[in-house]
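Methods — Computational structure assignment.
A single polypeptide chain was analysed. Its primary sequence is given first, followed by the predicted tertiary structure written as structure tokens.
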Amino acid sequence: MVQAFVIGDIHGAYRALEQCLSRAEFNYDSDHLICLGDVCDGWPDTKRCIDELLKIKNITYVIGNHDQWTLNWMKTKVVEEIWRTQGGAATISSYATGIPDTHIEFLEKARPYFISGNKLFVHAGIDPDRPLTQQTVSTFAWDRRLIQRAYAFINQETKHKITKFDEVYVGHTPIPFARPMQACEVWMMDTGAGWGGVLSMMNIETKKVYTSDKVPSLYPGVEGRMKTK
């Protein structure tokens, strides 16, 4: 049976990615994986992460803000200081032997957002008060307004809707939980893999969650985490 999964921000944590795919018994030939962006920066294995994602035949990749920084460096070789100090140094090190063209193409082809049925997948969020066609890639990669609005209802049983979509999946903003959380129709998928948390992957249909071990335990002695988002 073909299954569809969504995964949060990986941030160079190949060992966590490997655990999630294995624990979900993900089929590289038939299952669909939707990545919410920020495979880059933080832990030391950005190159290995993208190598692994390229093995998946049915993958949809949504670009994140760290991916944008990394892609700019890959194409220009310019190292922005803010990027270098926010996880970029680890990405640079992971490409010490060179940057494959396939990795540049992978990030270049990433989508600003993805819609399947009436489900929206986006890295950071959207402006809920404006049509998507009137919004920018910067909004989709950086904006936290949707999360902030949804988070106000996270402990309330009453169902509120804040967008036109049945479900919205976002990363970007780490949540202080070891599994994805839903507020209104918004699923928050970033469970802190770039810091001291875990990487989370979820079956979109069944909502079954597969998590890695805490990422620092997978990289003992490695100072790979970012300072801020």
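Note: The helical segments are 14-23, 46-53, 65-76, 81-94, 101-108, 137-142, 145-151, 215-218.
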